[in-house]
Amino acid sequence: ERFGYYGMRAILVLYLVAMTKDGGFGWSNADALSLYGTFTMAVYLTPLFGGWLADNVLGQRKAIIIGGILMALGHFIMGIPHSVVAG
């Protein structure tokens, strides 16, 4: 989990501001940093919602299993090369 977070943190802005011909999104620095700030905010706020969900709705065991599956799916999806997705 920490590997995914710090890996994303290290390359997110670089990927967003890279030119589209180089495989990036071609965003401005301001827009990329705004998304980075939103991402960081979500990283620190979503555990509050997740904790409430685990305590009041799902239970700890179900929440851990569902969270682990979602994290694994996210990491696998990030590993798919762009050429496979684009066809």
UniProtKB/TrEMBL annotation:
Keywords: Cell membrane, Membrane, Transmembrane, Transmembrane helix, Transport. Its main location: membrane. One of its GO terms (cellular component) is plasma membrane. It is found in: Cell membrane. One of its GO terms (molecular function) is transmembrane transporter activity. InterPro entries: MFS_trans_sf, MFS_Transporters, PTR2_symporter_CS. It is a multi-pass membrane protein. The chain crosses the membrane at residues 7-27, 33-54, 63-84. This is Dipeptide/tripeptide permease. GO terms for biological process: oligopeptide transport.
